[in-house]
Amino acid sequence: MYRLPQLRQELTLTVGAPTPEGAPTWMLHDPAANRFFQIGWPAFEMLSRWPLDDANAIVASINRNTTLSISLDDIEALLRMLRQQNLLVATNASDTDRLSAYAEASKLTQTMWLLKHYLLIRIPLWHPMPFLRRAARFAGFAYRPAFWMLVVACALTGLFLVSRRWDEFLHTFHSYADLQGIVAVGVALAFAKVLHEFGHAFTAQRYGCRVPTMGVALLVMLPVLYTDTTEAWKVPSRASRLRIGAAGMLSELALAAFATLAWNLLPDGPLRAGAFLLATTTWIGTLVINASPFMRFDGYFLLSDWLNTPNLHDRAFALGRWWMREWLFGFGDPQPEPCSPSRRRFLIGFSFATWVYRLVVFFSIALVVYHAFFKALGMALFCVEFGWFIVRPVLRETTVVWRRRAQLHWTRQTRRSALLAAALFGFFVLPWHAGVSAPAVFGPQQAQGLYAVEAGYVAASPSPVRDGEQVQAGQVLAALVSPDLAFKLKAAQADEALLRWEVEQQPFDDRLRQEGVALKRRWDAARETVNGFSAEIGQLTIRAPFAGIVHMADDNLAVGTWLPRGERLFDVVGPHGVKGDAFVGENDVARIVTGQRAKFVPGIVEMAAVQCRVQAVDKVNVATLDEPSVASVYGGPIAAEAEPKTHQLVPLQAIWRVRFGECDGTQMLSRDVTGTVMLGAGRESFAARGVRALVAAVQREAGF
Question: Residue 128 CA to chain centroid, in angstroms?
């Protein structure tokens, strides 16, 4: 007789949904851990005969009374699973030792607990079953077809009306850009999410599931609500499970439909503002966040139920790893689970899509945790996040392949992988990449803009200049008259004359003698003021700084025209020579030396590319951008921002100015031209460039 250990008495066995192939399944529920295990027909037959307490009797009964054919090996396999999942009663010292070892292995140090849970910490707050039972009759209307017909009608009507007032609807977003608007959006989101969770809870209770807890989960330290609907897996009907999974999103969509219609019908005021917030936050939150199947949100559970595939991520990942190992190394491993070719292709594609999605999400979360804390802790959490969720899975898979290196042989798969690895090595590691592409400004060697130094009007000129005219150095281009500046000069001259008289009379006046040398200093200051105003008035006569061609910024410079201070009046361009300035990042500036070739490609089609030479590389990075055309605030390629006080353009990253000239076959340019310059820098590998950029980033961010 082969005696069997006793099953735990609180375990329950319920009918589950059939597999996609049509095979029956059952759900084994462990209420202590609130876990569900899906078992097939052979396991169900063995567990249903477990009271026989004899493995041989169970095998004989199943083989005699069913079409199945099992052996003691199947009993042993089931026992291993039950023992591993702690579903057996501990009856002896060895069982106690095994449970103690399992509990000890499951314990986490405080550091490891924070490492695994700082991204998502669940805090149960409420046991809602008594409330759900009492309030279920009040929520019954939401499960009637007439209610959802009304929701659809409201949604279509509201969206149609919004489409006719789309500009007004979009403009409403600007009203919530301040702190008060952010708080209002938060309140609307909280209301929508409470409704979302109660949608799950009421629907699960309606289909006979127990909802043990509702609470708050801290997702990257942001509070989000959650509802434990794990018991939905014991519902045999797939349609019912889909309703439980979709109840939250459907609740939010119904709220959004009513709120959208209300926004169109309500007058301006707090109620209309609240309707707008509910309409926008629920539409966006439901469609963008909850519907995603790549994270364990509602979309994942809906897809899992629709495919009738519990543990969808784990099973898809297993198939994805199996396919990747077979494609790369040809180990010949059996498929992790039997399924049709079309289903296998879908699960493999889904696994790779999830990996890419999670790579982006986890890297984004790493950046969020870096910026959410002070720099030292932020850098540590960034490294933990990046290492644990991105580097660790890659290293784990690499370790698995390395341990099986003895099974590798030269096959079609390994030859293909070797060629692919060699190509990737050559592309990223070998220094084949040459040249640096950088934004640049190309223009005349001599060029200067002339501006109005003070507000005034254009005076009559004996020889007015025209656009494109050749002028000589010092030639008068225009004369301005500033009444305000003239008044200030006359007032300063009057003050200076009075002080001069007092200085002259000082030896004869006792009161003036008491002021001593201070009077003489005040007179000197008054004379400097007069000279300053005189110099400014002299600058009102605009002269050519050098010989060249004059270009008028505004053709309407008629006599008597008033001009504001700083108005651009003329551009004088020298007759010979061109020059260019390129702006190179810190990762490439060390590769550029004087004398290298530089090919300027203009941003206008009318001008051909120009071959030049590098003439100089600045020793320090550019503090402010003198060329607005290359700054991002004016549509240029260099990320920059304008300082609020000085309005100077400050680059957001370190850049160096590279000057180039000695261009071939160039003609005179009348204005600056933006474009791209290709600098013939030394060869470099992408790997070396990435390492240097990483080291530079670490050095920059570690400066606290």
Answer: 37
Would you say 294 and 358 are in contact if contact means Cβ atoms under 8 Å apart?
yes
- Per domain, the residue ranges of the chain are 12-106, 111-308, 310-408, 436-442+576-701, 447-569
Answer yes or no: is pLDDT of 704 > 60: no
How many CB atoms neighbour CB 356 within 10 A?
A: 11
- Per residue in 517-540, pLDDT tens? 888 888 888 889 888 888 888 888
What are the φ/ψ torsions at residue 496 (nearest 5 degrees)? -65, -40
Give per-residue pLDDT as tens, 216-272: 877 656 677 888 888 887 787 888 888 998 898 889 889 889 988 988 888 877 777
Closest CA relative to residue 42, chosen from 25, 18, 22: 25
**Which residue shows structure tokens 């008060």?**
180
Residue 622 corresponds to which tokens in the numbers above?
């550019």
Q: Are 614 and 595 in contact (CB under 8 A)?
A: yes
- Structure pTM? 0.64
Q: What gap in Å lies between CA 457 and CA 390, rounded to an integer?
A: 67
CATH of 436-442+576-701, one of 3.40.50.970, 1.20.1270.10, 2.40.30.170, 3.40.630.10: 2.40.30.170
Give SS3 for 503.
Answer: helix
48-82 exposure pattern, b = at least 16 Cβ within 10 A, e = fewer: ebeeeeebeebbebbeeeeeeebeeebbeebeeeb
Residues 91, 5: Cα–Cα separation, whole Å: 8
Residue owning tokens 């926008």 = 280
% of the chain exceeding 70 in pLDDT: 87
Q: Among 5, 36, 2, which residue's Cα sits nearest to residue 99? A: 5
Helices 41-48 and 55-65 meet at what angle, rounded to 10? Answer: 120
